[in-house]
Amino acid sequence: MGFGGATFGREVDDAASFELMDYAWEHGIRHFDTAAAYSSGASERIVGRWLAMRRPEGLTLATKALPPYTSAALLTSLRESLERLGQSRVDIYYLHRWDSSLGDEGLVALDRAVQEGRVGMLGISNVTPAVLAALLQRQAELGLASFRVLQCNHNYAVSEMDAAMQAVQAEHGFNVVTFSPLGAGFLTGKHTGGVVEGSRFAIVPGHQAIYFKPEAKARLERLHSVAASRGITPERLALAWALRTPAVGTVLVGGRSKAHLDQALAARDDATSNTAEALVALTQRD
Description:
about 290 residues; alpha/beta; 8 strands
């Protein structure tokens, strides 16, 4: 399990962010994820201040760059992220999404960052299987450091880890980090009567186009039906499903309070036969 800082500086302030990171760390979470795009760099600054004060040992730190992906833009973005984080190196450096501005010069710049020790591993997020396969092939042709981590949306309602992406993963063996195990709150069922004011769907309306579809609604209803039949909450079942997906190495969780982390931790540690049977029931209904 990893901890994502998308809410930092946007939905939770510095003090609450520190409390959440402390709580995650105390409960064995050693993978922290942020991005330049989160609150225009505020999330990185908050994580950087926490790192400076706590100086944790054994933490995997990841951040992300936004387009354009020219050589100059990428190296500038990396420098600015490292400054906000107060670090000389980041363990995983992602391209936040695919963009056609990424050409050979951008791939060379990323390789340079790895060779110089400013980046441990390269990652990419929000990319199609075909584009990812082509990028990996081009990096191999040029003898450059390749993308070793894929970050993608993956939950019971909507998943980018489809058969095509799994085939690319099987061929190239990259690590998979997923986010939104509760579908940004969609799988709780709280939006069935409309978008809840102040929720993630209200703050980031782009989520609505992803989830307000017949297929996702059917999956939501199935999840709630199985959860009710087993006497467990749909949140617990959705989190357990995401945390037990084969080929996924790390599942990012986040939130605004310790309660959000508590439900993820409970699902992580849930070894009851009741939950196991509910997961089997979900699979059978698929």
